[in-house]
Amino acid sequence: MNPLIEVNNLSTYFESGAGTVKAVDDITFRIHEGETVCIVGESGCGKSITAMSIMGLVEGPHGKVVSGQIRFGDKDLLKISKEEMRRIRGNDISIIFQEPMSSLNPVITIGRQIMEPLMLHQKLNKKQAYVRALELIELVGIPRAEQIAASYPHQLSGGMLQRIMIAMAISCGPKLLIADEPTTALDVTIQAQVLETLRQSKEQSNMSIMLITHDLGVVAEMADYVIVMYAGKIVEEGDVEELFERPKHPYTRGLLKSKPVIGQRTEQLYSIPGQVPSPFELSESCYFHDRCEKCIPICRTRQPQLKEVESGHRAACWLYEEEAEA
């Protein structure tokens, strides 16, 4: 099956007075039609910058995509014009940002904000767009659609705003929906409703989802395929069941160990020792070596490459290089 979107050797850097930050460093992955791919990792690992790079939103004097290719259909999104990218953004590829209150215009009604992409991309008139906006509000499980459409963002709860963001994102029937931490700061009941809304939207249109999260519970519930990032690099990837049952990279194992398990009593949850390295002090070593319980001498001097360790399961770890050589 041909991938819907293919990211090849993508690197996005930011310049600062202290040096260069390699926010995303030479990553490659693909997403197929109807597939949910979860990108997981600690804050600052490059998840959101990967999404912003795909959407063409890394701009300005300090940050830019320095290399790579983002194939979407027959186009390389890094080489098309800004006007062509605007036609794709919000239409073929949509994004749900992490904080809906800062993503919605506080002085424009909810209905008007849902109508805008419909009028821009679908060429609907105001009446048609309004009718469709009401349908979308109901589709994401919010009652009293006309009242909600006439409301302003500050009049709605966080969970309702996040579902409005989903309504806006799916309004034009995108092929790919990028959801950046869509359930952050929501209670578990609302979180479940938001995830169910995403799942139903996917099933109705065979839409692909790129879901960014640090919550392994969300990953287990939603993902078909999982990508684990650390310090701007992909350290492991594979099918969700395979990765949860047989994690290969010590970092992935640490993440899974740190999650509480129902029915198990423990006085203190496991936490990965040490700190994420400073982006200004990254060397040619494995970035995880000083936090790793399995560290061997070569980890301190050379960086491992992402390689297949089992069928369809890849990891960047010298432990498997050593086993292969043996």
Automatic annotation (TrEMBL):
Taking every annotated instance into account, which residue ranges of this chain make up the domain ABC transporter? 5-256
Q: Name one GO cellular component term.
A: plasma membrane
A Gene Ontology molecular function term for this protein is: ATP binding
Which top-rank group of organisms is this from? Answer: Bacteria
Q: Name one Pfam family in it.
A: oligo_HPY
Which keywords accompany this UniProt record?
ATP-binding, Cell membrane, Membrane, Nucleotide-binding, Transport
CDD domains xref list: ABC_NikE_OppD_transporters (cd03257)
**Identification of the protein by name:** Oligopeptide transport system ATP-binding protein
Q: How does it sit in the membrane?
A: Peripheral membrane protein
Main location class = membrane
Q: Which organism is it from?
A: Paenibacillus uliginis N3/975
